[in-house]
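--- STAGE predict ---
source: upstream dedup step, 1 unique chain passed
mode: sequence only
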Amino acid sequence: MAAGRRIVYAGTPEFAVPALAALIAAGRSPVAVYTQPDRPAGRGRRLTASPVKKLAQQAGIPVLQPASLKPADAQAELAALAPDLMVVAAYGLILPRAVLSIPPLGGLNIHASLLPRWRGAAPIQRAILAGDTETGVCLMQMEPGLDTGPVFACEHLQLDADATAASVHDRLATMGADLLLERLEAILDDQLAPRPQPEEGVRYAHKIDKGEAWIDWAEPALAIDRRVRAFTPWPVAQTALDGRVLRIHAARPLPGEPVPGDVPPGTVLATRRDGVDVATGDGILRLQTVQLPGRKPIPASAWAHGGDLAGRMLGAVA
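--- STAGE serialize ---
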């Protein structure tokens, strides 16, 4: 019965590419793909197609890019496609109740957290910042509320001590694509009932603000390490030395090594073959990869060769 079902896909960034690719490879190509309008990108600020649009065009799938789905004409255009199901992954636009009611099977969202924990825009980063030991991906029936809909299925992922937003993003994108294919036929045949989310354990993953990237060296080394990993590859954790911004791409806490004496947080303690040690509010953080303004990221040990850093203070730009 599911063979004749029509799917519309909505997604924009790289996270949404594996699921679309999986649908195409499985012979489930959507009748149309929705993605956000082209945006200026790069130094030339040229209009650039989203990763999802590029894949859809390569596959010969019609692409629609409305600035909003609230206008009646945009909703009429979707209705004309006669979709049975709308699959959504990081689309980035609000789907009004009227839109979700167009497909008989509604909207199916691939969400990068273990709902109800981390509803919202930045679930991967918030999970790492909070020190969660696991996260995952869920297939959720969409409702007008913020990621409040009932859940069809979830897949768990352990968060290792070196997990970054980049590595978790890529793993969850692949897991979401696999989970979608595993459960799609049952959902299309209305053979899988979603379960309401628990009322306990709700957390909101608010959108990342660039200001959060500034490191507060009074925090414990473990917390700063999480900030570095959560903000890789964007917006990248940063501090400053002598009024110049220093971006931290990789670091690691040194367990069991206390800060000597009354050294203030942010003090460079020593330079090592494998990094630069900095005092924090609790423990030592070893910087491993750094980036100076206008330069490429380099090993922190190479940065240290440019001058005597021991005793220097890292902190916010004055």
